[in-house]
Design goal:
Layout lengths: L2 H20 L4 H25 L13 E8 L6 E7 L8 E2 L2 E2 L1 E5 L2
Antiparallel strand pairs: 1-2, 1-5, 3-4
Bound molecules: zinc ion (ZN).
């Protein structure tokens, strides 16, 4: 541990001791409050770091299968062609909030 870190820790502990000595509440209530605060902070940090997991990388271009699939939107009629997918039978894309219909696999 570095000297500056130890000095900072000593300053924090001294401040806490002075505040505890000067406060009108009993020590066990302050200790309980500190414990609850630490638990809440740790829980919040764990929840936020769980949300911060990065999205997995897409597979390399060589690992993708070449496909030629045409999909049509049953609502507005838009058509798209899928040229590469992770599997031979990929999930259809969505358009107008609906799954698109497979028109014809061109092989
Ligand atoms: Zn559409």
């Amino acid at each position: 541990m570095k000297r500056g870190r130890i000095a900072g820790l000593v300053a924090i502990v001294a401040t806490i001791l002075i505040l505890v000595a000067a406060s009108p509440w009993p020590v066990w209530r302050i200790a309980l409050a500190v414990l609850i605060a630490a638990a809440v902070l740790r829980l919040g940090y764990a929840m936020i770091s769980g949300l911060a997991q990065p999205v997995p990388e897409p597979p390399e271009e060589g690992e993708l299968r070449k496909v030629k699939l045409t999909y049509r939107c049953s609502i507005c009629g838009a058509e798209v062609r899928m040229t590469a997918a992770a599997s031979e039978d990929p999930e259809p894309p969505r358009h107008c909030l609906e799954d698109m219909d497979l028109v014809a696999p061109i092989t």
